[in-house]
UniProtKB/TrEMBL annotation:
The record marks 192-193 as: Cleavage. The keyword Transport does not apply. It comes from the Bacteria. InterPro entries: Ntn_hydrolases_N, Peptidase_T2, TAT_signal, TAT_signal_bac_arc. Substrate binds at residues 221-224, 244-247. GO terms for cellular component: cytoplasm. This is L-asparaginase.
Amino acid sequence: MSSRRKFIKKAALGSVALSTFSAYDAQASNATTAPKEAPIKTAKKPLIISTWNHGLAANQATWEALNAGKSGLTAIEKGLNISEADPKVRSVGYGGLPDREGKVTLDACIMDQNSDCGSVSFLQGIKHPISVAKKVLEETPHVMLSGQGALNFALSQGFKEENLLTPESEKAWKNWLEKSKYQPVINIENHDTISMLVIDKDGNLTGGCTTSGAAWKMHGRVGDSPIIGSGLFLDNEVGAAAATGLGEA
């Protein structure tokens, strides 16, 4: 399973190796004149970082899981579950703003230090897409499941189907329908998500993203968040990065 998921890593390492070789050659040719560089400082461990203020509660849950001896993968899942279950966070999970048909559709991905990853997109009726993405990583030979297939898989794994549209989000959708103008602005009110990166006590990296996507999007739209190499990527020997915002920007 792991070997099938490492094609992105191999390509990325090839690019890194090329750029490192070129930089080394340049440094060697100017060894007598180049100033000495300060040593690179390593991050304190463990370390958790996530996006936006609603990430603070998620960080706390992740921290508690790490302190309890959980893996980085499980800790990130537990942390992001907090945002997914909070109806006040209207860009993630339960209570997320719906598409233009009034349906809440969810995307998520997760990746560990071994470059194993799992992802779901266009998932409906499941409150915790990050947990389904983790199951994709652990239980399937695939990286991503989408739509009805993702839902069927979630149900087979014991997840409960439920209505994710809260009265508040439904009201916002009905207000939008009065004009039905789709002019997304890059801000935190109408489309942003949560991404989280973790360095555990052993220095291993894990990352995750979960989102309900852009409000009032066309039904079926999938953004950048669940796509490995776009919404999230990590290399345990190099670092990790996650992106939030408007996927089409």
